[in-house]
Amino acid sequence: MNFRSDNEAPVAEPIMQALLEANQGFAESYGYDHYTEMLEKRLTDIFEHWVAVIPLTTGTAANALAVAQCTPPYGAVYCHENAHLNKDECGAPEFYSAGAKLVDLPGEHGKLSPEILQKALAATGAHGEHENRPSCLSLTQSTEAGTIYTVDEIRTLTEVAKQSPWQLACHMDGSRFANALAALKCAPAEMTWKSGIDLLSLGATKNGAMLAEALVIFNPDYATEIKRRRKRAGQLVSKMRFISAQMLAWLKDDLWLQLATHANSMAAGFYREMQSRVEFLFPVQANEAFLRLPETAIAELQQAGFAFHVWPGSTDVIRLVFSHATRPEDCAALVTHMNRALA
Predict the structure, then answer these.
(1) Alpha carbon 182 to chain centroid distance?
(2) H runs (alpha helix) in the chain
């Protein structure tokens, strides 16, 4: 009964099967295999746009390479204060970019607002070469609070970024991109390049893959020498077919959306059952729920065998993450035990 993280979920069966099939025989190394070639074509079709696709093994690498690709060492990257980029990458974006500065901004429910971004950008420039040059906007979709930017919200934020005198590049951290896409029920193109996104960190690992991420570049201006940057970062995987094969299986017949829809529905069902009993800190819009419980109830749930995170810095806030492998019976048991603990 694991609600700790979708990173802890097992590999989806079709993806594991695809790995076994990719393991038959030999294939050219370093991304020159037919699986990786097919993946770029597949993502070109899905996003209805030219793309450069860089298969990777971690979301940290995808985010850090994206920042480094569009931000000079003296540049500034604007993101939410709780963004994974800012809180959970151990300085990788700064390291890969050789020194770019992260400018973290506040925002309700894990999201930046156009007003906050506009104010931050308007406050730059007075000190000339003494300050970092605004270079990139990074949005997390879905957010670290489990909330989702609407297409209109993304478009408004990227317009602020691109219409400023600095003409910022726009990156999307999509470690849970599929969950957001399944919730919004829009086309992938609408949530990305049509809304001003230049680079996307597309994550499959949290949604059924073993280890499969990709940096997807929509703007050719940010594609130059990206493969050399990947190599220099130690991220050029020799047997890349095993990453690309996972993502191809993940995308085939909309499996990625099916897996994400299941995770989202488990979270939504839990919210419906418990919204009148407990305090939810943020709207439950994707596959995560943050809620406040008495410490005694938290202890009872843990003793009953439920795994989840007590959120750092608190003793009474927990995060529940629902995955493609979450079983309805485990959700029902969680509701039953939670009601019992609260009573």
Answers:
(1) 14
(2) 13-22, 34-47, 59-70, 84-87, 92-96, 114-122, 151-163, 177-184, 188-191, 226-232, 241-251, 255-274, 295-303, 328-342
Residue 3: phi and psi, rounded to 5, are -120, 25
Please measure the distance between the N-terminal and C-terminal CA atoms of the chain and give it in whole angstroms.
Answer: 21
Q: What is the DSSP letter of 12?
A: P
User: Which of 333, 289, 199, 342 has its CA nearest to residue 6?
Assistant: 289
Q: Give the distance from CA 45 to its chain's centroid.
A: 21
Dist. CA 49–CA 260, nearest whole Å: 23
**Three-state SS for 104?**
strand
Q: Is the pLDDT of residue 126 over 80?
A: no
Identify the pLDDT of residue 343.
Answer: 87
Going from the N-terminus, what domains does the chain have, and what CATH number goes with each? Answer: 12-253 (3.40.640.10), 255-342 (3.90.1150.10)
Mean pLDDT of 86-98: 95
CA–CA distances in Å: residue 125 to residues 38, 52, 117, 230: 45, 33, 15, 32
Cβ atoms of 164 and 124 within 8 Å: the answer is no
Mean pLDDT over residues 194-202, rounded? Answer: 98
pLDDT bucket at 18, cuts 50 / 70 / 90: very high
CB 160 within 8 A of CB 117: yes
Q: What is the pLDDT of residues 224-273, one digit of tens each?
A: 999 999 999 999 999 999 999 999 999 999 999 999 999 999 999 999 99
Q: Is the pLDDT of residue 182 over 80?
A: yes
CB 33 within 8 A of CB 27: yes
218-227, Cβ contacts within 8 angstroms, sequence gap of 24 or more: 218/47, 218/49, 218/50, 218/51, 218/192, 218/193, 219/169, 219/193, 220/50, 220/52, 222/69, 222/70, 222/169, 222/198, 223/52, 226/52, 226/54, 226/65, 226/69, 227/31, 227/54
* Count of other CB atoms within 10 angstroms of residue 5: 16
